[in-house]
Design goal:
With about 110 residues, the chain is an alpha+beta fold. About 20% of the residues lie in helices and about 30% in strands. It is elongated and about 50 Å long.
């Protein structure tokens, strides 16, 4: 078992002023961007040693589930890395991350 090392983790979503902006960006990809980046997670870093228990606490909308989803591979990080021992997990498929021993169990949405 190795240490879970999260370094500079970030997740951003595209935020559009209207649904028409999203449509215009999709139909006219060479035109100017019509979105702004909304950072949900920004520069999160921590380590969890083998046998250590860690709790994630925060208000609704703080990004707790997003962080777990990024760490377990259900969402790709916009920045940063997640490592388990010597293996970089960022960008791997969820089933490969689960095979390494990290999974998001019992999360609803």
């Amino acid at each position: 078992m190795g240490t879970i090392q999260v370094t500079g983790l970030g997740k951003a979503y595209r935020q559009y002023a209207s649904r028409w902006g999203r449509l215009a960006e999709w139909l006219l990809p060479s035109s100017r961007p019509r979105h702004q980046k909304k950072w949900i997670l920004h520069d999160i870093s921590f380590a969890v040693a083998p046998g250590e228990a860690v709790g994630i606490v925060g208000i609704n909308g703080a990004g707790k589930s997003t962080m777990i989803n990024v760490m377990s591979g259900f969402q790709r990080p916009s920045a940063g890395t997640v490592r388990y021992g010597a293996v970089t997990l960022s960008g791997l498929a969820p089933h490969l991350i689960a095979r390494a021993g990290i999974a998001a169990l019992g999360l609803a949405g």
